[in-house]
Specification:
This protein is an all-alpha fold and 146 residues long. The protein is built from nine helices and no strands.
Length: 146
């Protein structure tokens, strides 16, 4: 039987290839194996569905996760941003922080793109302040997105 690492690797491949139908099949195997509520597999499922354009399914998986980490949040935020849904990305970013999760480099990159896509200049400035406070302003990738 496949283990967590195998499932995560296959889900990553499905996301990369935008292979939604295969991803759904893997999801069914994950449910049968009892791994669906695992935060790492759940985050990979969110990422796969989001990258394949199935934001509704990504959000369903995200909402079912009993424990979410920064990777789970970042995957959902990035999915919204990728498909031009900047406002839901921004709302989720704020909810993440209310839940006590601190944004990381990947989360900041996704939310900066979301702010740019919807013209949220003031929100972008506030996020810029958070980036400075977190010490990520000197990060080359984050810095070039400011």
């Amino acid at each position: 039987n496949p283990d967590e690492v195998t499932f995560i690797s296959v889900l990553r491949a499905c996301a990369h290839l935008a292979a939604l139908e295969q991803g759904k099949q893997i999801h069914a195997h994950i449910i049968q194996s009892g791994f669906e509520l695992d935060v790492f597999i759940g985050s990979s499922l969110v990422d796969m569905y989001a990258k394949c354009g199935s934001l509704e399914e990504a959000r369903k998986v995200f909402n079912k996760l009993p424990n979410r980490n920064v990777v789970s949040w970042a995957a959902m935020i990035a999915g919204y941003t990728l498909h031009g849904h900047g406002l839901p990305a921004l709302e989720l970013f704020h909810r993440m922080q209310l839940d006590g999760i601190k944004p990381d480099r990947v989360t900041f990159l996704g939310i900066l793109k979301a702010c740019g896509s919807i013209g949220a200049i003031e929100q972008g400035r506030l996020i810029h302040d958070q980036i400075i406070q977190s010490g990520l302003e000197s990060d080359v990738v984050v810095g070039t997105n400011l």
